[in-house]
């Protein structure tokens, strides 16, 4: 492997922030690792699934969204790292039960957080599981989220196979949009920020 190939490989491993113009100001999207990402918008910082990584170099959160109960999405130590006085946490019931003061958001619900619309959509596996007849993510347990920042909508989705027909049909109605999603590549996870604005 030559030096150029090594450098390109290393660059692909480093999360790259993307800034998008919206009708109400800039939106900065920072993929961090696996399902962990951060939005900066309108003076607010939103962390999604802070988990399994050193988050000390990132700004503290005004809002934290957790998608599922598994340790790669719900990590109390990571939450404590990005939390500050006044941080609000939103999660599905199974996670909110474990975090004092967390607000519950269920599949199909919509909330307005500081002028940002957030839709919770189903996040579940159709096929993949630890064994036959069992799924890693059961239907109705976890959330994917669609964030509306001004005139831009961002779909944060977790599992490559989860509810694809439902979530994508719903997402397509939004027209021009961006997607932050995590894709599986073998046994390793790789973050991807796809912008289609």
Could you give the topology of this structure?
Layout: H1 3-13, E1 18-22, E2 25-33, E3 36-41, E4 44-48, E5 63-65, H2 76-82, E6 88-91, H3 93-96, E7 103-104, E8 110-113, E9 116-123, E10 142-149, E11 152-157, H4 164-172, E12 177-185, E13 188-196
Parallel strand pairs: 4-5, 5-6, 6-7, 11-12
Antiparallel strand pairs: 1-2, 2-3, 3-4, 8-9, 9-10, 10-11, 12-13
Keywords, separated by commas or semicolons:
197 residues; alpha/beta; Metallo-beta-lactamase, Chain A; 7-stranded mixed β-sheet; 6-stranded mixed β-sheet; 4 helices; 13 strands; 40% strand; disordered N terminus; disordered C terminus
Structure description:
It is a single chain. The chain has a single domain (16-196), classed as 4-Layer Sandwich (Metallo-beta-lactamase, Chain A). Helices cover 16% and strands 40% of the residues. It has helices spanning 3-13, 76-82, 93-96, 164-172; strands at residues 18-22, 25-33, 36-41, 44-48, 63-65, 88-91, 103-104, 110-113, 116-123, 142-149, 152-157, 177-185, 188-196. The strands form 2 sheets. Strands 1-2-3-4-5-6-7 form a 7-stranded mixed β-sheet. A 6-stranded mixed β-sheet has the order 8-9-10-11-12-13, covered by helices on one side. It is globular and about 45 Å long. Residues 1-12 and 162-197 have low confidence and may be disordered.
